Amino acid sequence: MELLGNVIFGFSVALSLQNLLYCFIGVLVGTLIGVLPGIGPMATIAMLMPLTFNVPPVAALIMLAGIYYGAMYGGSTTSILVNLPGETASVVTCIDGYQMARQGRAGAALAIAAIGSFFAGTVCTLLIALFGPPLAEIALKFGSPEYFSLMLMGLVAAAVLAHGDMVKSLAMVVMGLLLGIVGADVNSGIKRFSFGVYELADGIGVVVIAVGVFAVGEIISNLSDPEERQVFTSKVTNLFPTKEDLKQSFGAIVRGTAVGAFFGVLPGTTPAIASFSSYMVEKKLAKDPSRFGRGAIEGVAGPESANNADAQCKFIPMLTLGIPASGTMALMLGALMIYGITPGPGVMTEKPDLFWGLIASMWIGNVMLVVLNLPLVGMWVSLLKVPYRLLFPAIMLFSAIGIYSVNNSSFDIYLMAVFGILGIVWRMLECSPVPMMLGFVLGPMVEENLRRALQVSRGDPSVFVTRPISLGFIVATVLILIVMVLPAVRKRRGDITD
Amino acid sequence: MKKIAKSLFTIVLVFAAAVCSGMAAAQSYPSKPLRLIIPFPPGGSNDIVGRLIATKLTERLGKQVVADNRGGAGGVIGTEIAAKSEPDGHTLLIVSSAYAINTSLYKLPYDPIKAFTPVAKLGTGPNVLTVFPGLPVNSVKDLIALAKEKAGKLNFAAAGVGSFQHLGTELFRMLAGIDIAIVQFKGGGPAMIDVIGGHTHATLGSLIQFMPHIKSGKLKALGTGGSKRSVVLPDVPTIAEAGVPGYEANNWWGILAPAGTPPSIVGRLHKELSVILSLAEIQKRFLDQGAEVDEMGPAEFGPFIAAEMAKWARVVKEGNIKAE
User: Fold this and answer.
1) Which of A498, B35, B147, B214 has the most CB atoms less than 10 A away?
2) Nearest beta carbon to residue B216 from set A324, A334, A344
3) B170 Cβ under 8 Å from any chain A Cβ
């Protein structure tokens, strides 16, 4: 029972008054920046890090980690309430979460997001404690061919996201792929579709698109239809999920956690990929997929669990191998080294207080987040009663501040406005922006890894089927294609009007 | 009556304030908060060094020095903003080797030679050449021999076209006379992970980033990029002494001010910076980052930048590297 001893030791570290305080500050700051669009954990940690140099390393790291996973909790709040994704990973939550809010079930959506995140956080804390090092070793087996095949599978599965017209969905995926091309090409350095504009040299920010299309587009559309607003506030029903809600969400939370943990261990993926994947899984498994996009609670429970699981499991490669899975993790790695700690397999044995203390604090942080978020649900929901003439300008203001703060660039605000207009055009044409977002997130990764894999194999495409992990994903992709195409063909034969 | 008295009072106040501020400006610099433009997003080495210097400059100058991240386009956006700022000593720019490299890669919206006046060089960040431990080499000479034996077969991971790691690798390829493929990644982190996983063979990058993996044996260090051995890795030879004479590729950081900034202000800033760089605390902070304090004044820093520009221009030209 060495593990039990370690866990108890971890809690003894994390439960000290000082560490509890820093953990609380971390998750509180995280929740706040999660609520604000644009400003993400990375910029916050970079700016707060110098302040932590006088704090003991364990406390500092506990706080920085709290900011990171706290942001994942906060990100869902504005997605659900006002269709404003606070973080990239919360884009998916907008789809069904916002619809739930429109039906007066914002409280249930917020609560299930918090419950799902808590479950995922708990499972992943255990996962890190039990299987951290071996999982990280497996993640290292992923090279460019594996990432390509995995992302390809995601792109093909995107067809599941189709809501209504299949052709329109495919067109929107392609739109996302095209938008993803903008900026300097990684392999050649050539700038594509940047039109000599330096602000476009690094591509379009995903938050800019998400906030523009979802939040700004939603505001314009609401303004054009004042009737809708009445429905929205008049029937705020139960604040907490019903028994039925919980029953429906349970499977989604478990599956979301599994999906998130898988992507979390892989260094080369972003949380948005985990939440998108979880949404696709839920929609595919649902008895009645047509409920999705109209306020299905699984569409909130799954992705919210997934993005929190992903955030938490990103600590596995960082803590056990010293490999930063994201920019934020690279920063924390830097912080560790400033405190004189060399990350890597040695951390567990050389600095057990840090390793186990941090893991225990993550679980405590998750408890704090639930305690912090559940009572807030009532307050958030009452925000919806704020008249639109006040709420709209406030949303616009916070969106603009958030977007500006990413790069301190006013260009991004103009770009957000452009995407707001595009968002309303797509809405009028009844084209869902969700497949576009997926194309935008996955497209550049598919291209980059495909070209890199081929460069390393000197142009030999067999590399995708001779490497076992990659082959597995390719086979799965083909199976998904078959499963998807067959019923569509059968259906078309049976009922042409459908 | 009350109204008139109030407006009169306001006029007197405004006038007094104007006189005072005018006198202050003539008497002492700085007269208002300073802005240190960091032309990269938060988190990178420029950001870390920049924020450190900004904090200390605030203490020395008695006015707030605000670190202002203006990232994008490999540093070009922030540099352009600095180039177009008022040359009154209240806007400063932190630059790194990317500043010298960009000259030969991009059509720039500023004149890299005439737009700025050098203030001080701050430090040097050495690079290290590492390989996947499964590769049967133990020295730079071994690696070159293997690359010659398997011409065109070895893959070097780099952090993106035109990145410092890319040009440092290109310089290595040119001087060693070997045929290798340079595989690009989005940043130094992903490139390093790929080599640790054994998917690509070797990579050259910042010492601080590779350090934990060199210690844990996940990467094998063959040589460092400086002109002398790194104090952080004293057992590892420089690439130059290990078989590629003339090789030198270091990252560095320095402060520039917009051209036209009065020499007296540049002198004052340099004085304060050299005091800051001599602090034991700052030197330790640099070492923590795998870097070393390497101070130069305006007279030396200018020619140093010119030499760096010439060196990388040659590599870009001979390596036929294009980024636009």
Assistant:
1) B147
2) A344
3) no
Task: Tell me the one-letter amino acid at B142.
Answer: D
Query: DSSP assignment, residue A211?
Result: I
Cis preceding linkage at B30, omega within 30: yes
| CATH hierarchy code of domain B127-224 | 3.40.190.10
The domain segmentation of chain B, as residue ranges, is: 32-124+250-318, 127-224
**A73 Cβ neighbours under 8 A, 6+ residues apart:** A27, A30, A31, A34, A113, A114, A117, A308, A369, A373
Rounded to an integer, the average pLDDT of B236-250 is 92
Rounded to the nearest angstrom, the gap between the alpha carbon of residue B308 and the centroid of all alpha carbons in its chain is 12
Confidence of residue B217 (pLDDT cuts 50, 70, 90): confident
A186, A338, A404: best to mutate for the B interface, most B CBs within 10 A: A186
SS3 state at B138: coil
Buried b (16+ CB within 10 A) or exposed e, A250-261: eebbbbbbbbbb
> CA of A90, closest CA in chain B: separation in Å?
22
**Tens-digit pLDDT profile for residues B7-46:** 555 555 554 544 444 444 435 788 888 999 999 877 677 8
pTM of the model: 0.80
Please state, in angstroms and rounded to a whole number, the distance separating the CA atoms of residues B121 and B300: 9
**Residue with token string 């890199």:** A452
pLDDT digits (tens, 9 = 90+) for A464-482: 999 999 999 999 888 888 8
Q: Hunting for tokens 């005018």 — which residue is that? A: B22
Cβ contacts below 8 Å, chain A against chain B, sum to 134
B218/A321 Cβ within 8 A:
yes
- Is residue B132 less than 8 Å (CB to CB) from chain A? no
Establish whether this prediction's ipTM goes over 0.90.
no
Min Cα distance B134 → chain A (Å) is 14
Domains held by chain A: number: 1
Question: CATH 1.10.150.20: does it fit domain B32-124+250-318?
Answer: no
